[in-house]
Design brief:
By secondary structure, this protein is an all-alpha fold. The protein is about 45% helix and about 0% strand. Helix 4 (about 80-90) packs across helix 9 (about 160-165) and helix 11 crosses helix 15 (about 265-280).
């Protein structure tokens, strides 16, 4: 992905404080008249926390360039499902590190502001970004953090197949991902398994997640469908192996950390329960959508969900 003319590209990923980012995101930036670059922030950024290869900037730039190349002729939204698992694989982070907004500020404002404009651009110029949060904001709105966290919350151990499915539906990315139920791995997988003729449209997804999330406030998911502890050492080894693995293959899904799959029985238990809850869930236009034969979510694709 070529950088704006005359700009400097960082070689390492650091962090940019929220206060600096907020001052930089001016109306001219949001309207697409000005593209920010690392040169503007070089003296205000902080370096990476260690000297490992996982903070090298070039693999991320190459990945984003490939995403733009593949999806330029289609809607930029279609890049989410492809990019999310590969961004997670490339940016090997702990959850604590991924909670640092300074990291995502750096990616959006110092490393790849042009990608943010491409993904979220609109208007006559195609570069107007409607929300400052796409550059610097809440974890589920910021251009890159939303994709990393979607992969983290919906992966099934090393299997990124469910992530592709989740990120292929904007209702899951825009609404469902914020709900507390997604923090429970079997619940996240169960939501993706609601494919037996019930959950078809985006409205269906929102309704199913809403009733399941509300019910979970009193019925503890862990009691109904216990999860298993993830292997912290396996995750640590995977994170530290960045740069040692073979180069990412763009046409096949990479493998995430082998820190433990979601218990199959637990996911099935919650799937059955969610289906019963959804039967009485209020869905605007529900009957009309079904009568029209609305297309399914594609969850039956082989390998999508283990």
């Amino acid at each position: 992905m070529s950088a704006p003319k005359g700009s400097e590209i960082p070689t390492r990923i650091g962090r940019l404080p929220d206060s600096v980012a907020a001052r930089a995101i001016t109306p001219r930036v949001l309207q697409g008249y000005e593209v920010l670059s690392f040169s503007s922030f070089k003296e205000k950024t902080e370096g990476p926390v260690d000297d490992t290869a996982r903070w090298d900037a070039e693999p991320v730039r190459e990945l984003l360039a490939e995403a733009r190349r593949r999806f330029t002729s289609t809607a930029p939204t279609s890049s989410d499902a492809w990019l999310s698992p590969r961004l997670h694989y490339t940016l090997r982070l702990t959850r604590a590190e991924a909670s640092d907004t300074g990291l995502w500020n750096f990616l959006a404002l110092c490393l790849a502001p042009d990608f943010v404009q491409w993904r979220w651009g609109r208007g006559e110029s195609g570069r107007e970004v409607g929300q400052a949060a796409r550059f610097s904001g809440r974890w589920d709105l910021q251009c890159f953090s939303r994709l990393w966290w979607a992969a983290e919350l919906f992966r099934d151990g090393k299997n990124y197949g469910p992530v592709e499915l989740a990120c292929g539906n904007q209702d899951i990315l825009n609404t469902v991902m914020r709900q507390e139920m997604i923090q429970h791995r079997p619940a996240a997988q169960a939501l993706l398994r609601l494919h037996r003729g019930a959950v078809r449209t985006g409205r269906d997804v929102n309704a199913a997640a809403s009733v399941a999330n509300a019910a979970g406030a009193t019925l503890v998911y862990e009691a109904m469908a216990p999860d298993e502890l993830q292997d912290a050492e396996a995750l640590r080894e995977w994170i530290l192996s960045a740069g040692d693995d073979s180069a990412i293959q763009y046409d096949t899904l990479p493998q995430g950390p082998n820190d433990g799959s979601v218990p199959h029985g637990a996911a099935e238990t919650l799937t059955a329960w969610f289906e019963k809850l959804f039967e009485d869930a209020p869905v605007r236009g529900k009957n009309r959508a079904r009568d029209a034969g609305a297309p399914g979510l594609g969850i039956d694709q082989p390998g999508s969900v283990a």
